[in-house]
Amino acid sequence: MTATATSARSDLSGLGRSETALRTFLHGLPGVDQVGAEQRAAQLGTRSIKTTAKAQAIDLAIRMVDLTTLEGADTPGKVRALAAKALRPDPADPSCPHVGAVCVYPAMVPHVAEVLAGSGVHLASVATAFPSGQAPLEVKLADTRAAVAAGADEIDMVINRGAFLSGRFKEVYDEIVATKEACGDAHLKVILETGELATYDNVRRASWLAMLAGGDFIKTSTGKVPVAATLPVTLVMLEAVRDFRDATGRQVGVKPAGGIKTTKDAIKYLVMVNETVGADWLDPDWFRFGASSLLNDLLMQRTKLTTGVYSGPDYFTLD
């Protein structure tokens, strides 16, 4: 646990009451050693797992996928087909696990809900003027409530990066608090859009801000900017959730999203989770991958391990 987190234990609940308190706390967090973080992430990325452990890692990664489509051309038929794939990723192999969630725009939620009802696969919806976050608060909250009313049990909100980078931390905090309230019983994932935050120190501050405001998950990216999830950024976020649990007793999940396309990539992240925060986070309730094409590569690698034959990409449906 960091010294800052320890000393602030009794004061964390009141930080959101003033801009000054939030700024003092967030700027008092220990700075991130950029070289150290990047070297640590690179080192963990060289770990290799084989045979039975690899098969277990692939199945775990499949269970952690938030199978996602967030395109202007999405249709009811497309998202229903995606939901069906989420339930049975490999129709030829009933032992293949289902994914963690399907993630779509709010307008598509009712169509996905029809397919997923009673399945145990979560239904996530982006909200709060995704991906920019540039809308009045009342519009963001209406967006959230509509998605939940339509059947979403997870909301992926975006923070106002302009407000955060301008140092208006309480504005960001208050929006997260209000969105969490609008979620009702749905879980809230807070997208930091780390590619726009510029520094690892900002990633750490945004992670703590999102958790202090009540976020159930912190998520790297929308997938709509050039720089999405990276191993070093995810390492910084994992360290933040570890220290936050030490300070508060509350566990928060992590979701890297965008640019994670291969089984090799996914396993690197799983190794990092295990080595940084431990087995408590090696569960779909606490770690997810926001992805579309990743699932197909996981399925191809799984088929190779079980049959000895490497199936081509045409063997599985395109997402």
Name the structural class. Answer: alpha/beta
Q: Give the helix tally.
A: 13
How many domains in all?
Answer: 1
Mean pLDDT: 93
Please bin the fraction of helical residues.
40-55%
CATH superfamily assignment? Aldolase class I
Instruction: Give a short account of the largest sheet.
Output: 8 strands, parallel
Radius of gyration: 19 Å
Relative strand content = 5-15%
Give helix and strand order, one letter per element, not per position: HHHHEHEHEHEHHEHEHEHEH
Shape: globular
What is the architecture at the second tier of CATH?
Alpha-Beta Barrel
Extended strand count = 8
Low-confidence stretches: 1-10
CA(first)-CA(last) distance: 41 Å
Strand order of the largest sheet: 7-6-5-4-3-2-1-8
The level 1 CATH classification is Alpha Beta
What is the CATH topology classification name? TIM Barrel
